[in-house]
Amino acid sequence: MATPVPVRIAALPRGGRALLLPSAHGRSLGPGAEAATGVAGRRRASPAAKGKSPAKVEAGSPLGNTRKKGRAKAETQDNASVERCGAGGLEKNNLEEQVEAVCDNDAADMDWEEGQVERNEYSHELGESFTVEFNDDVPSSTTKKTVRRATAEEKELAELVHKVHLLCLIARGRVVDKTCNDPLIQASILSLLPNHLLWNVADVRNLKAVNLRNLVSWFHRTFCVTAQSTHRGSFVSNLGFAIQDRIGTAEEVCALSVALFRALNLTARFVTNLDVAGLRPDTKVMGTLNQDASRLCTRSLPHSSPAADGNVVSSPALLKDNTQDSVSMNQRRGGLGKSKQTSACKRSLSKTLSSIKADNESSCISASSQLPSTSSNAEVPKRKGDVEFELQLEMALSATAAENQNNNQANHMSQSIGSLQDSTPPKKKLRQNTEATSSSSAVWSRSAGAPLYWAEVYCSGQASTGRWVHVDVVNDLLDAECKVEASSAVCKKPLRYVVAFAGNGAKDVTRRYCLQWYRIAQGRVNPEWWENVLAPLKQMELTATNNSEDMELQTRALTEPLPTSQQAYKDHHLYALEKWLHKNQILHPKGPVLGFCKGHPVYPRSCVQTLQSRHGWLREGLQIRENELPAKVVTRPKRTFNAQSVQSSANEDALKPTLELYGEWQLEPLQLPHAVDGIVPKNERGQVDVWSEKCLPPGTVHLRLPRLFQVAKRLGIDYAPAMVGFDYRSGRCLPVFDGIVVCTEFKHAILEAYAEGEEQRRAEERKQEEAQALSRWYQLLCSIVTRQRLKDSYKTPSHGLGHEEALGNDNIQKNTLSSQRSERKPISSKLQTDHEHEHVHEYPEEDQSFDEETFVRTKRCPCGFSIQVEEL
DNA sequence: CTGATATAGCCAACTTTGGGTAAC
DNA sequence: CGTTACCCTTTGTTGGCTATATCA
Q1: Taking every annotated instance into account, which residue ranges of this chain make up the domain Rad4 beta-hairpin (predicted)?
Q2: Which nucleotide comes closest to A584 if you measure CA to C1'?
Q3: How far is CA A61 from CA A56, A85, A114, in A?
Q4: Helices in A183-228 by DSSP H: which ranges?
Q5: Tens-place pLDDT, residues A803-850
């Protein structure tokens, strides 16, 4: 029944043998899987093995492929396991002979795809200890994971996602900003503010950060922050409910603070660290878009439907996870005992859900219950007595409406799903969730959540001319911009794009919060694109706030402290170490030295010059000045594209394996011979090399149109074919031509003539097509007529035929340009006998027509067959 | 945990002007 | 016999950059 399949026998050092299905990536059945009862293995080429021949363990060669260290190591281990499993000391038998015969047959080019061994057929010959072993995916700590790097396509996709996500987040920021201007929201939040806090901020013109202290503390005490919110239809509605319930997401609470500041007539803006999907693809997560996908998903759809939640609830794995989440959360908050923790693991569904509820509620309670949570008592331990915690739990549960609970439940569940989908380990994720909800600590540490939303208030009384002051009501922080970067880094939400929103506009203020730009530069999108996106928004922001801080941000950008690690100097935007220069870079001038890092002098980045070869500069329309020596000489790859150069490679190596590079300071504009008297200066091949438009001889133009050279030739204008590059196919390089180069003065004449010529050519083409169509119609109709005539001649001979024939011919002849239609008339009666007719080779003159415009002669056989001949 | 270093995989750059055969 | 059109074949190597692993 089983198809004989080529299999390989590995001769093992101790004489043991194992049957190996040829596979680069088989699967281990484990040491215990003995005498497999029919094994089917399918190999799928993994990306790592893509394009490589399957790693086969050759007979007598334990290490099939020792080219790379890592693989050799892995295979050594594989063979050890093979040995372990296969040391049965089997006698060579028929099967093996058969198998080896197949192997010897080689097999090297065989497609080793699928294997199947049926026990029924062979087991009696092999004995019970025969083991089938697949040499891959052995679960072992030392097994090297296949490292797959992202391809260019994936990178492009990730960048696109990043950009789109950025745009979405900006749009979101604008929505929030706009809502902060809503009069009703402003009035509502203002109405909550106690009177005594009002006059602290009355003097807007001389406002200082200190004046905001009480306001911020009050706000922090009054509103508690929750991880998830209920969608109420619009952000305005959400804020309305947040005001009513004194509870909202960090974003909502922060937005409310901005609304309050604006209601108080302060200049305030909504600031957010855009939590955007990564610019680079995440190679750790295979098969999915990237790890941010789930985050994207949860952010855009934070409220999964109850039905979806129901599905999830039915999954035991998720349940367990939730249980653990809630347990450790309880432990964290309330200090539950160990026994309680273990018992909690076995809780029923309802208890799990209630504990989740408790978590949600307790987070609010803990935030709002620690009312006087100023910096003075920030160090108060979070652990409280169990009793107190239980009390709070009770209060929370009873105080919350059932409906609300359900919502929270659902939200928390969807959040949990998100956390499971996320590549972050559950434990870590849990911590993040906890952090997001806990807001009692004013000391930046891991326990404080990553700051994603805050406000900036312009304090005119601060500094000499006033400045923007960082105000974070979520974390009860005032003027603490220096702490943002560290806390973001700790919470794995590094600063990337800190954007301030005001007046429906936006502005990148990352510089204010980021002291180590080199750390984030890699994660940011192409600055040009980003600036283009923000340019119109920046103007709107400026109009609204009337405060330009560009100088301040610029100063920050230029006065970054010297990094202490050498790595940081790699592509640092301000500083450079000589060791990190690229192959085509040089320091010119080599100085000044700004400092030292581990003994290496640090130079300003502005001293780094990028060099190019003579040809490279030529493309840019520049040439090297006379008598300039190469700034740097680097080795160039050997030319190995044909046999001749390989033969003479020894000489070539000695001669010129180097590439001479020049810097910008050694250049002058390209000086090419001018076009004189309508003659295009050409190279020795009679062409012009157009590496770029800058390489054109002065006074000439490059016209990239097909068939243009014919026009130039016809008009007698001097031209040269434009060689634009090379095509390297099948190991050969072929010049690629595109259009022609002519003197500028002939440009219009040629283009006009070309347009005319093209028009004519198209007309001719059309005419030809029409003629052909007519001819085909004629043939078709003739054959119909003939057929009909034949038919009739057998049924009712010579009856009613004349009319049809006349009609058919007439129609055609009206439309043809034939000048001799009348002569073709009586279609010979010979036709009637023409079953095996051969077309007349020498067509009679009277059966030919000639079109003087197209030079097409149409010859017709009396049977209706015609042939067209173009006369030249 | 951080930084230095080694390693491996992806990818871009580099190369820089056909030859044999059949039909006409 | 000279000219022309068409087909053939689908590279191959090197080094830079970068992510990851490993070690101090």
Answers
A1: 558-609, 611-673, 680-754
A2: C16
A3: 10, 18, 23
A4: 183-192, 213-222
A5: 444 444 444 444 433 334 333 333 333 334 344 455 555 556 666 777
